[in-house]
Amino acid sequence: MLGLTMCLTLTSILVAAQQKTRPSTVLSTIFPKGQKAPATNFTGNAWVTQLIQPDSAFNIPVGSVTFEPGARTYWHSHPGGQALLATGGTGYYQEKGRPIQILQAGDTVKCPPNIPHWHGASPDAGFTQIAITPNTETGRVIWLQEVTEQEYRQK
Amino acid sequence: MLGLTMCLTLTSILVAAQQKTRPSTVLSTIFPKGQKAPATNFTGNAWVTQLIQPDSAFNIPVGSVTFEPGARTYWHSHPGGQALLATGGTGYYQEKGRPIQILQAGDTVKCPPNIPHWHGASPDAGFTQIAITPNTETGRVIWLQEVTEQEYRQK
Predict the structure, then answer these.
(1) Which candidate, A58, A82, B46, B80, has a CA 20 to 30 Å from the CA of A16?
(2) CA distances (Å), A52 to each of A79, A115, A153, B77, in order?
(3) Domain Cupin type-2 spans what residues (chains A, B) (predicted)?
């Protein structure tokens, strides 16, 4: 009887610990990780999977991106803007000249057209996000320089 | 020692059961449920939360929808189409004249412009999805008639 009680208690603690860690450290596994993102535009390890392929009737690419801890995009801008939906872990988002914002599951961001910015994971926890890129008739993305360690660590 | 072994075994079974049920029955809780969807366009209980509010620079509404088991939209069409991303549970999607498709977490759908269709939960498991509506300059949605029990139960 004591063994069973101890067992149920341990199980409860483990399940509670799993639930407690979800908002800040558990990555979403809803969508596949996809392909490794190119080292020319990303620092560290990131993966991209295309969820909606654009076509003539439906010109809006949608993708899921997974960042390992410390991984992030280079600085870049979108001529038509981009929406980000945070789906798991802890992420960073920064527009040029503004402080880094922390993103957690459920947070959303509108990156305005032509504003240089970057996004990625925090140093200690990975990050998953959905990216929706509208108005692509003027281009999808303009890549800029790498986010330096000093810029990344200013948080 | 036997108690500890039994305990660890039970814990493993419970954690495995949690993981195993995820694809078909566990709803995503990444985004808030939001507001009850109007009974004029939905059968059963559904909730909608707007994730990206459209504006002049960024005219793409994005929302998360949660359907209770048995809940579904009325038949409707989108002049500019709509993309669906299944985020949890088990859903149904049907275009007029075609069979019902089952949707589970990770599945995606492009609803083509002007094609009557409906979507919602399966009878026994709820469903969560993200909806992305592009090309809204020609209108967001045209609502049609209710999905009858006979249409819904043909699966």
Answers:
(1) B46
(2) 19, 24, 34, 19
(3) 65-121
Q: Tell me how many domains chain A contains.
A: 1
So what's the ipTM on this one?
0.84
Chain B contact residues (CB < 8 Å to A): 2-4, 6-7, 10-11, 14-15, 18, 28, 30-32, 51-52, 55, 57-60, 62, 81, 83, 85, 87-88, 105-106, 108, 110, 112-113, 130, 132, 134-135
Q: Please list the pLDDT of chain A residue by residue as tens digits (155 residues).
A: 555 555 445 444 444 444 444 446 789 999 999 999 999 999 999 999 999 999 888 889 999 999 999 999 999 999 999 999 999 999 999 999 999 999 999 999 999 999 999 999 999 999 999 999 998 888 999 999 999 999 999 97
By C-alpha distance, the chain B residue nearest A81 is: B58
Residue A44: partners with Cβ closer than 8 Å, 6 or more residues away: A67, A68, A70, A71, A72, A120, A121
On whether residue A10 sits in a domain, the answer given is no
pTM for this prediction = 0.85
The reply to whether B144 falls in a domain is yes
| CB-based contact A27:A35 (threshold 8 Å) | no
Nearest one of B68, B81, B85 to B137, comparing CA atoms: B81
Cα–Cα distances in angstroms (integers) from residue A136 to residues A33, A59, B58, B132, B136, in the given order:
24, 7, 12, 15, 15
* CATH code, domain with A32: 2.60.120.10
